[in-house]
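Thread: quick sanity check before group meeting

JM: Hey all, I'm pulling together slides for Thursday and realized we never actually wrote out the predicted structure for the chain we discussed last week. Dropping the sequence here so it's in one place. If anyone has concerns about the input, flag it before I start.
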Amino acid sequence: MNGVADAGIYARESDYLDRYVQVGAAGEKVISLSFPTTPDEDASEDHLLLDRIDEYLHSEEDDFRDVDVGLTVPTDRRAVLEATREVPYGQQASVEQVANMAAGLDADDEDDVATVREALADNPVPLVIPDHRVRDGPSGAPPEVEQKLRSLEGL
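JM (edit): ok, ran it. Output follows.
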């Protein structure tokens, strides 16, 4: 995504989520997205991704696939998160489907299924990597946020 602001922490309150949306950026890359009840003290409100998330939370369809994410996770977890990004807006997948979509993983292998669950639970950028679309998997977002995102997309 072009136009990402400089490195820093950015946060904006969301009435829909009843909490803040907070973005961590390093140059052109988004490195974290969280939903705190209180934002970081030095967070700024002005960030292009926060504008897009506001629109999304007001029912503007957006899959956020063009957002440049800086993932610092092991290769197998990266494959899971990249596969999860491919689940379209308003659709859902199972943990097993994500395992089969992820390079090098197999849904018939218990360890690979565990890797999928761990990667989703530790997702550093929920919503941008839409773990809420994995119906039987954990999310990097708090449960109440995950449910609101699912509801917003009709899942």
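AS: nice. The CA atoms of residues 29 and 92 lie 26 Å apart. The mean pLDDT is 93.
JM: adding both to the slides.
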